[in-house]
Amino acid sequence: MLPAERVDEEIRDPWELAGRVYTSRLLVGTGKYRDFEQTRQAIAASGAEIVTVAIRRINIGQDRNGPNLLDYLPEQDYTILPNTAGCRTAEEAIRTARQARELLGGSPLVKLEVIGDGGSLYPDGLETLRATETLAREGFWVLVYTTDDPVLARRLADAGARAVMPLASPIGSGLGILNPYNIRLIIREARVPVLVDAGVGTASDAAVAMELGCEGVLMNTAIAAARDPVRMARAMRAAVIAGRLAFQAGPMARRNHAEASSPARDPLP
Q1: Is 111 among the residues known to form the active site?
Q2: Prediction pTM value
Q3: 3-class secondary structure per residue, 51-82
Q4: Is residue 220 exposed (0-12), middle (13-18) or buried (19+ Cβ within 10 Å)?
Q5: What is the pLDDT of residues 233-267, one digit of tens each?
Q6: Active-site annotation holder among 25, 101, 111, 237
């Protein structure tokens, strides 16, 4: 086996989400790009296998006369994860999820978002929990966007969520992970995959999320709003792999004192 092939085999790290196995732990959004062609190029560079689409904002068949994203990101090449972005109540989110299922030939996957505050774009925990309970009863595989509240994350999993997706920081802020302690608590108690969603700004943020032990990272603005989205997509791909490898390796313990890299020994004769 050639050295490059050995490296590829070492970083291959399959994981399962809602009954399906994936090799990329980077999930990407499809908003804010210049056009669908740039979207296609950036997502190809990211290596992502799961792409999320805002049903209320991006055409995947709702407008038969307009450009269709699925012409650029065909369903045979990607798992299309519809999301309920823009919904403010459980009822709105449930209707949007049902519409997405019809548009995508009965696929049960949905990323649930119910926003409670127009300024911070923070999710509404109570409405999100209500929607999760209903959609899970209807057979949806709910990946749920939430705050970094460990208690709420546990209740969402108990309500039937297939994955919980705590924010790192406010949507589109690029501030990175503001509360790694809470993310660790969520991961420690999780019975479902934990994916950091929202707030990632650059590659180091993605690496930190993976080093904490997340199963994956979802991002959109960090790539789409970069000066060079395609190059940033490559950077994020590498960062997620590096962070995962570091987590698996088990980082050294941090110390409050210096320690020589080479062990102390008697001087050489």
Answers
A1: yes
A2: 0.88
A3: EEEECCCCCCCCCCCCCCHHHCCCCCCCEEEE
A4: buried
A5: 999 999 999 999 999 999 878 878 787 776 666 56
A6: 111
